[in-house]
Please model this.
Amino acid sequence: DAKTTQPPSMDCAEGRAANLPCNHSTISGNEYVYWYRQIHSQGPQYIIHGLKNNETNEMASLIITEDRKSSTLILPHATLRDTAVYYCIVNTGGFKTIFGAGTRLFVKA
Amino acid sequence: GAVVSQHPSWVICKSGTSVKIECRSLDFQATTMFWYRQFPKQSLMLMATSNEGSKATYEQGVEKDKFLINHASLTLSTLTVTSAHPEDSSFYICSASLPRRFSLADTQYFGPGTRLTVL
Model:
């Protein structure tokens, strides 16, 4: 199964864009990139996923490089409520979602 | 849509007793549900995959006789921690995936979690 690498923590000013990077250099051609986040003491929340093309929804944008070896999650206007641990996950193809350490994002006023 | 609930949200029990945690998909039928455990300041650890009408598949190192999983219907999976001990105290989270006919991907929808404290 492909693994991902994320920075352990990042800071972002409130109202600014938060750009969270993820490396997944061993991703297979049919594997999706997923992003979830977990706010303290809650269950994870699905954010967005993509295969090859960039994706956007009401929460975020996902930019996947052409070689698919890395991606960036963009929160366009971060708020204090976006403070959470963000997990970048590559689908294993067996319905299992395996979590790494994630990136702890601190949004500061 | 795609809401998953858990009950109870927290539970305190005495050492040696058993605790049952329920996971329900409220607005969709989930043929597959997952159970995770999370210790403080750590990431989620997958414990088992639960398939409706069949035995659960446990991850390596997870005791199947201690963590009993039942998936009797398409909307309900239960996790029973048998003979709980203080080291079983943790945050237990379930998730469910939408049937593939609704999505080509394997998006997981998570419950809010159950905090178990064993005294």
In short: The first strand of chain A starts at residue 9 and ends at 13. The beta strands of chain A are 9-13, 18-23, 33-38, 45-50, 55-56, 61-64, 70-75, 84-90, 103-108. Chain A touches chain B through 23 residues (CB under 8 Å).
